[in-house]
């Protein structure tokens, strides 16, 4: 190794470690701020306390928002997994024109501005007379979750050996059963990764949801931003810490079963 | 067999029709609506939009912030990806967790954390003052610098991961071979590593830029209403001003920017890939 090599490498290490620090900073700050005893965000906290976690109980409507967000995330992810499986099999096994185009189209909502999709859905639902907020939100959230599922399923099915499904069929399983018993368990890592990221994306979505809510159906991110405008006390940091904990759990499940490196390749 | 392979294609129908009706059609209708006034074709809304200096400022600010965010993210991401492609075991896990955990924590939580950090009596100012770098607190919240830093933080993993993916697949013997042939480190980087990593750089930059152009939660928390961006103007025209014509116009502009970035970058990535 020459001197220039060494210099370049040490500089890269400094940037890379700085990058890790930079990425983790908001998470650490939120956790620290949630355990403060004071009513403002002074850091480090003057005294450690759980008061903002206790105050969450009294937050009217917060638990409704949590329940609605969890409901939407779970249901939309489930529906996306079913729709995604069918579409990914078609792309992987079908022999027809435009398979590439289908793959690109089903992943494309990831790259579209969320707010624009939200606006478009708002106008569309009004046009067709869909007034129910829950159903509007659910349909909107499937648009969010489906591309995450498609991305991982398309990648794994391209590498999946479909003769296993054919073998199961010659042994007497019907096609749907062969898919459920052979393909799904074999692609469990893809289902888990795609599903987990889809779930988290739905839990977090603000720009589409804001256009589809009504006074009674507010998802957690909408409720959080509303609190921030009304009474910006550290109870918001406590809610955020709860969401960080959720992300950690999801990540641990993912890394234990799939491995981190495979998760990001999805 | 031919018949069966064609019938398998039908499995795509439920998902495709869903996205066609609940995603593509509404977007198309939105685009159509922006070219209509009272049912007649018209570009008047666009003329009005582009002849207002305030709107042009918002458009320029949105593009500038997105460019700066992409640039900052790239500067941090490239060396990080280089190191990630070299390390194994413990250090690789550290980097992967640092990428995936923030990606899994929502943007609302992170944008909110940056408002805590940037507060006038916040962590950053306290640190700067106790280090004696500044005497009085600096106003950070509501500035464009704060917005770019916050946005780069949120989108960094989307820049690092594509570059890392490309570099990891690169045969590490290539730079070594160049070295054994007497290439200097600078020459090696410019002629081997950099060109091979360009598809990753293009993909990461396109993703970061299109996310940053259309971000809404981060600017509305970090800079607030004082410095509007296109997304904030869209949300305002729909949710508060009830000016749907203006909202449809701005959304269509955002849509066109996003689509051109996606198409342009995939064309560029293909070309770069083909050349190798």
Characterize the structure shown:
The complex is a heterodimer of chains A (266) and B (276). With 266 residues, chain A is mainly alpha-helical. Chain A folds into two domains: 3-52, no CATH class; 59-262, MetI-like (MetI-like fold, Orthogonal Bundle). Chain A has 13 helices and no strands. Chain A has helices at residues 3-34, 51-55, 62-93, 99-107, 114-128, 133-159, 163-170, 175-186, 188-204, 209-212, 220-230, 235-257, 260-265. In chain A, helix 1 crosses helix 12 (235-257) and helix 9 runs antiparallel to helix 12. Chain A is globular. The relative contact order of chain A is 0.13. The mean pLDDT of chain A is 87. Chain B has 276 residues and is mainly alpha-helical. Chain B has two domains: 1-41; 45-274, MetI-like (MetI-like fold). Chain B is built from 13 helices and two strands. A two-stranded antiparallel ribbon of chain B has the order 1-2. In chain B, helix 4 packs parallel to helix 8 (144-169), helix 4 crosses helix 10 (185-213) and helix 9 (173-180) packs antiparallel against helix 10. The longest helix of chain B is centred in the first third of the chain and has 34 residues, at 53-86. Chain B is globular, with a radius of gyration of 23 Å. Chain B starts with a helix and ends with a helix. The mean pLDDT of chain B is 86. Classes of the chains: A mainly alpha (266), B mainly alpha (276). The interface between A and B is large, with 89 and 91 residues.
């Amino acid at each position: 190794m020459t001197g220039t090599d060494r210099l370049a490498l040490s500089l890269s290490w400094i940037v890379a470690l700085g990058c890790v620090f930079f990425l983790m900073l908001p998470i650490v700050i939120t956790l620290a701020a949630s355990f403060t005893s004071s009513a403002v965000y002074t850091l480090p906290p003057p005294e450690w306390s759980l008061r903002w976690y206790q105050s969450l109980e009294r937050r009217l409507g917060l638990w409704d928002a949590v329940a609605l967000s969890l409901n939407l995330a779970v249901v939309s992810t489930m529906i996306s997994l079913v729709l995604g499986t069918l579409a990914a099999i078609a792309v992987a096994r079908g022999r027809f024109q435009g398979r590439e185009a289908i793959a690109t189209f089903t992943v494309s909502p990831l790259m579209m501005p969320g707010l624009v999709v939200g606006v478009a859905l708002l106008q569309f639902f009004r046009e067709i007379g869909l007034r129910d907020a829950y159903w509007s939100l659910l349909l909107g959230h499937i648009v969010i979750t489906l591309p995450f599922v498609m991305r991982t399923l398309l990648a794994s099915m391209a590498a999946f050996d479909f003769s296993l499904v054919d073998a199961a069929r010659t042994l007497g399983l019907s096609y749907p059963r062969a898919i459920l018993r052979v393909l799904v368990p074999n692609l469990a890592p893809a289902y888990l990764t795609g599903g987990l990221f889809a779930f988290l994306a739905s839990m977090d979505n603000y720009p589409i949801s804001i256009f589809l809510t009504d006074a009674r159906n507010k998802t957690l991110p909408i409720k959080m931003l509303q609190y921030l405008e009304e009474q910006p006390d550290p109870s918001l940091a406590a809610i955020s810490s709860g969401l960080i904990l959720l992300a950690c759990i999801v990540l641990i499940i993912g890394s234990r079963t799939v491995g981190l490196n495979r998760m990001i390749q999805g | 067999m031919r018949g069966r392979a064609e019938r398998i294609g039908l499995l795509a129908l439920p998902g495709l029709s869903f996205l066609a009706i609940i995603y593509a059609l509404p977007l198309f209708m939105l685009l159509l609506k922006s070219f209509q006034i009272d049912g007649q074709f018209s570009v008047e809304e666009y003329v009005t939009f582009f002849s207002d200096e305030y709107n042009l400022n918002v458009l320029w600010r949105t593009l500038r912030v997105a460019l700066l965010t992409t640039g900052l993210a790239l500067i941090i991401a490239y060396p990080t990806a280089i190191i990630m492609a070299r390390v194994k075991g413990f250090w690789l896990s550290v980097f992967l967790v640092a990428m995936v955990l923030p990606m899994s924590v929502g943007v609302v939580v992170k944008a909110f954390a940056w408002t805590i950090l940037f507060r006038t009596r916040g962590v950053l100012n306290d640190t700067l003052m106790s280090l004696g770098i500044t005497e009085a607190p600096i106003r950070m919240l509501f500035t464009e610098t704060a917005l770019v830093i916050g946005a780069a933080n949120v989108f960094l993993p989307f820049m690092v991961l594509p570059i890392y993916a490309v570099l990891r697949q690169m045969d590490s013997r290539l730079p070594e071979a160049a070295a054994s042939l007497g290439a200097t480190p600078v020459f090696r980087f410019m002629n081997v590593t950099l060109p091979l990593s360009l598809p990753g750089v293009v993909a990461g930059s396109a993703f970061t830029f299109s996310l940053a152009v259309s971000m809404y939660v981060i600017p509305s928390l970090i800079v607030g209403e004082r410095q509007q961006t296109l997304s904030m103007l869209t949300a305002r025209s729909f949710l508060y001003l009830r000016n749907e014509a203006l909202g449809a116009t701005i959304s269509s502009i955002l849509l066109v920017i996003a689509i051109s970035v996606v198409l342009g970058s995939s064309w560029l990535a293909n070309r770069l890939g083909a050349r190798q």
